[in-house]
């Protein structure tokens, strides 16, 4: 049965020797979405994106683009509707920005007028005649994005597009990506290892950890996971924990604190009174909210870098 | 054609043509230097001698020239990290064919220049009669084929290795090997020895009279097999390059 998602992978797997880099990943990118593909370094984001673009051959699983299963015969036809920027930008340093885009435009078979348009979009129109070797890293990254935008494809696949950019460049790139679905009806699949970046750009999110997709839903749903809790610091944690459990409260112990689910003020007041009556000193009461970062860490593992 | 056209756009400012001209210029200088003042007897055999000298120069210089050409064409992709972009725009096979076609056009230009030069030089030196066009055409075609086989080998190496020193060293090694093989007569079935296998003229030197005589070769069946090997190398290197390039993951 045909699906409505623009990109779908089914049990997509990639194994290099004995190492399984991507393990049965099922991505679903809805149309006109900005899908943030999030994961720590080495989680398998780039490999997954490369497989979608046909740059790496999957060990197992299959890919559907624009509701069509990708195979060797239709791969180029389907990729003609996509633009990509994988890892670092690709460019010919001895050519000017415009000459670089002309090569891509010729190969893509799109209109020459697109060159002017994309140069304006990425704000490189004034540097179009400059050799790319003389571009800054941010300019090269923007040139890579311009090349991906040529032909105004339906789907844009961007792998860590803000890598190596300064804060202003990151902000600029982020704003640009955010504007693409609205301005040109594009669907964007963007990967990053920075949660904050995805949080500010994406409306859908997929989180990959050690090659396995551990979470996939809207960003809104991910935010809904951020539960509020009450943290208590007391003199006798173990006794207090028993007491709470006797009252039917599901409390946990973490770093010297007792973590309780959110409850109303009257209940908290009663609880405090009960603890004092049991000669347990109450040092601190805090309201805690599990941040998006905490959720990300709990999904990807704390040992991995962000 | 579109992919081939972009190949030429990519090498703008890379001065590949100039580099080729400089390297071919060395060959021309060599030819100018050798036999610069021919006597009457040398003038009589001049056209045949040219077809004897050219393969000797080619066997020494062409492996290096081909390695430079292939390396320059492949290096633009390595330096710009462009395979991962190009493979989303064109099939790897099409990109490989464009590189082969682009290099072949350069080789064709080099070969035409070589032959125009030796013909012009022959007339300028006043060689007797005219070139024997049949032998010259055969020499041109086989020289072109030998260059193509070496170019395909070098392109294969240049596309496989990011570090272009490896294919360049292989090219220089090929030149050295060609020089050595020339003396030990073991060149026939190696790609670098193709120029010598396909030489249209040979030299006969009589130690007693010390008279040098050049003559057009008549190929024995074994020698014809050696010439056929040039085409086996072309097919082999082309197929290997195409398969490896298609399998290469960006």
What does this structure look like?
The complex is a heterodimer of chains A (306) and B (250). Chain A has 306 residues and is an alpha/beta fold. Helices cover 36% and strands 27% of the residues of chain A. Among the domains of chain A are: 7-81 and 153-224, Rossmann fold (3-Layer(aba) Sandwich); 228-289, 2-Layer Sandwich (Alpha-Beta Plaits), CATH 3.30.70. Chain A has a 6-stranded mixed β-sheet, sandwiched between helices. In chain A, strands 1, 2, 3, 5 and 6 form a 5-stranded antiparallel β-sheet that branches. In chain A, strands 13-14-12-15 form a 4-stranded antiparallel β-sheet, covered by helices on one side. In chain A, α4 (113-121) crosses α5 (137-149). The longest helix of chain A has 18 residues, at 167-184. Chain B is mainly alpha-helical. Chain B has one domain. Chain B contains 10 helices and 2 strands; from the N terminus they run αααααααααββα. Chain B has helices at 2-10, 16-33, 40-44, 46-80, 83-86, 92-124, 133-160, 165-184, 194-197, 221-247; strands spanning 201-206, 211-216. Chain B has a two-stranded antiparallel ribbon with strand order 1-2. Chain B starts with a helix and ends with a helix.
Tell me the helix content of chain B: over 70%
The succession of helices and strands of chain B, N to C, reads HHHHHHHHHEEH
Number of domains of chain B: 1
**Class based on secondary structure composition and strand pairing of chain A:** alpha/beta
Sheet bearing the most strands of chain B, described? 2 strands, antiparallel
CATH level-two architecture of one domain in chain A: 3-Layer(aba) Sandwich
Do you know the CATH topology of one domain in chain A? Rossmann fold
Order of helices and strands of chain A: EEEEHEEHEHHHEHEHEEHEHEEHEH
The structural class of chain B is mainly alpha
The main sheet of chain B orders its strands as: 1-2
Tell me the helix content of chain A: 25-40%
Assembly of the depicted chains:
heterodimer
User: Which spans of chain B have pLDDT < 50 for at least 5 consecutive residues?
Assistant: none
Taking all residues together, what is the mean pLDDT of chain A?
88
User: Tell me, what's the shape of chain A?
Assistant: elongated
Strand portion of chain B: under 5%
- Largest interface, per-chain counts? A-B, 29 and 25 residues
């Amino acid at each position: 049965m045909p699906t409505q998602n623009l990109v779908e992978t089914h049990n997509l797997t990639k194994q290099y020797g004995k190492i399984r880099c991507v393990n049965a990943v099922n991505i679903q990118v809805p149309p006109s979405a900005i899908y943030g593909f999030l994961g720590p370094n080495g989680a398998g984001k780039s490999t997954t994106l490369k497989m979608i673009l046909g740059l790496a051959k999957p060990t197992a699983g299959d890919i559907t683009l624009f509701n069509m299963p990708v195979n060797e015969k239709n791969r180029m036809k389907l990729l003609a509707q996509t633009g990509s920027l994988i890892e670092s930008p690709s460019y010919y340093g001895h050519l000017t920005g415009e000459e670089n885009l002309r090569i891509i435009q010729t190969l893509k078979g799109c209109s020459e007028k697109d060159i002017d348009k994309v140069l304006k979009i990425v704000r490189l129109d004034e540097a179009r005649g400059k050799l790319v070797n003389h571009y800054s890293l941010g300019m090269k990254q923007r040139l890579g994005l311009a090349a991906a935008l040529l032909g105004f494809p339906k789907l844009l696949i961007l792998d860590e597009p803000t890598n190596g950019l300064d804060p202003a460049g990151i902000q600029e790139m982020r704003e640009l990506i955010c504007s693409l679905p609205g301005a040109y009806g594009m669907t964007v699949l963007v990967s990053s290892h920075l949660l904050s970046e995805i949080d500010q750009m994406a409306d859908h999110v997929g989180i990959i950890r050690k090659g396995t997709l551990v979470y996939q839903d809207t960003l809104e749903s991910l935010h809904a996971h951020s539960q509020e809790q009450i943290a208590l610091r007391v003199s006798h944690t173990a006794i207090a924990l028993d007491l709470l459990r006797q009252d039917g409260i599901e409390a946990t112990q973490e770093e010297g604190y007792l973590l309780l689910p959110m409850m109303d003020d009257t209940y908290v007041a009663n609880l405090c009174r009960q603890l004092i009556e049991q000669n347990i000193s109450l040092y601190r009461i805090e309201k805690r909210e599990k941040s998006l970062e905490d959720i990300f860490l709990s999904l990807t593992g704390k040992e991995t870098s962000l | 054609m579109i992919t081939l056209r972009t190949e030429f756009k990519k090498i703008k400012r890379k001065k590949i043509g100039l580099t080729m001209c400089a390297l071919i210029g060395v060959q021309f200088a060599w030819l100018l230097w050798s036999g610069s003042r021919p006597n009457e007897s040398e003038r009589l055999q001049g056209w045949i001698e040219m077809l004897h000298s050219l393969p000797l120069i080619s066997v020494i210089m062409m492996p290096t020239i081909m390695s430079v050409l292939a390396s320059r064409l492949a290096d633009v992709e390595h330096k710009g990290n462009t395979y991962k972009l190009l493979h989303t725009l064109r099939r790897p096979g099409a990109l490989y064919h464009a590189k082969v076609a682009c290099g072949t056009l350069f080789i064709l230009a080099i070969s035409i220049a070589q032959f125009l030069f030796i013909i012009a030089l022959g007339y300028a030196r006043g060689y007797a009669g005219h070139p024997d066009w049949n032998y010259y055409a055969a020499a041109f075609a086989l020289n072109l084929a030998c260059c193509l086989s070496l170019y395909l080998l070098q392109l294969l190496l240049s596309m496989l290795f990011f570090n272009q020193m490896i294919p360049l060293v292989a090219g220089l090694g090929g030149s050295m090997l060609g020089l050595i093989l020339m003396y030990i007569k073991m060149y026939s079935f190696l790609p670098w020895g193709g120029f010598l296998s396909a030489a249209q003229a040979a030299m006969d030197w009589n130690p007693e009279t010390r008279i040098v005589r050049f003559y057009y070769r008549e190929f024995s069946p074994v020698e014809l097999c050696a010439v056929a090997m040039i085409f086996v190398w072309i097919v082999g290197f082309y197929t290997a390059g195409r398969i490896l390039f298609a399998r290469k993951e960006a």
